[in-house]
Design a protein that fits this description.
Number of helices: 5
Oligomer: single chain
Distance between the termini: 15 Å
Structural class: mainly beta
Number of domains: 2
Pfam families: F5_F8_type_C
Protein name: F5/8 type C domain-containing protein
CATH superfamily of the largest domain: Galactose-binding domain-like
InterPro entries: FA58C, Galactose-bd-like_sf
Keywords: Signal
Strand content: 35-45%
Organism: Petrolisthes manimaculis
Largest sheet: 6 strands, antiparallel
Bound molecules: 2-acetamido-2-deoxy-beta-D-glucopyranose
Strand order of the largest sheet: 1-2-7-4-5-3
Length: 263
């Protein structure tokens, strides 16, 4: 965490244009992302270039201008710039503040609204992955980046004993919220429903998925989910745990989830 905090700048911006939000403070974290990933993964992008002269007056003014503009665009989740003399580009991509780009030296400076969470870089285990969806690997859940165009999910086989995931934070973390994002498909109605989220501190005695019943129930999503639905489950008080498990209890279809955050 020390490393992350020394390489990441948190920008606190007070905006007066957040009617839908309970808070008028929006936190933006700086993160580096390869230009090739930005163009390959985003389904919507829009460039503001040139910016109004007042927004170009300083780095801080530009960050503020582009952050507020991104916030006003309903689909924008990250904005980027690699040229201090030009404007910025907005993307509909989730990039977690702790995301580590494979090619940081050529990466673009971006700013994300996401909060630091415990899932990015955590260890993940799962039931059998679906060979018919070769890109649907469990690592997509912990890599800190998520596109809304599909191909970025964990996808299990249809077998009952394959429909689970366990995220291991390495040590006990305190949290109140678990976010799941459904796959970008109408199939989300079948691939994300009847999901039980449980928490524990040790590996289970019995093998998953049955062994996951040893964990304490955190919450349940009855579903059915809609395409790209964001499901936030909030505990009434903070809990502490090292492991968070996700098990789908309806086995008529595969289990697919696009993205998970815990904080
Ligand atoms: C995990 O351990 C912490 C610290 O001992 C404890 O407070 C917490 O309740 C435990 N969590 C669970 C799910 O048992």
């Amino acid at each position: 965490m020390t490393f992350l905090h020394t390489t990441t700048t948190l920008f606190l911006l007070t905006t007066t244009t957040t009617p839908a939000s309970a808070s008028n403070i929006q936190r933006w974290s700086q993160v580096l992302v390869s230009p090739s990933l930005l163009t390959a993964k985003s389904t919507v992008q829009s460039t503001a270039d040139p910016l109004p002269p007042e927004a170009m007056a300083s780095r801080d003014k530009k960050i503020k201008y582009c952050s507020i503009t991104c916030h006003r665009l309903s689909w924008c989740r990250v904005w980027c710039t690699d040229d201090p003399t030009a404007g910025c580009t907005f993307y509909d991509l989730i990039v977690m503040p702790a995301y580590q780009d494979p090619t940081p030296l050529t990466a673009t400076e971006c700013f994300t609204t996401r909060r630091f969470d415990f899932v990015t870089h955590a260890t993940i285990t799962s039931g059998q992955q679906n060979v018919w969806v070769p890109l649907g690997i469990k690592e997509n859940i912990v890599d800190g980046i998520h596109s809304f165009g599909g191909d970025d999910n964990f996808v299990s086989t249809i077998d009952a004993d394959a429909q689970w995931l366990v995220i291991d934070f390495g040590n006990t973390k305190k949290f109140t919220q678990v976010l799941m994002i459904a796959e970008a498909s109408p199939n989300a109605a079948m691939s994300l429903q009847q999901v039980e989220i449980r928490i524990g501190n040790t590996t289970t005695t019995a093998a998953p998925p049955e062994g996951l019943q040893e964990y304490k129930l955190f919450g349940k999503f009855p579903g059915p989910a809609t395409s790209n639905q964001e499901i936030m489950i909030t505990s009434h008080k903070p809990v502490s745990a090292r492991f968070v498990s996700f098990r789908k209890l309806d086995y008529q279809f595969i289990f697919a989830v696009g993205h998970i955050e815990v904080y």
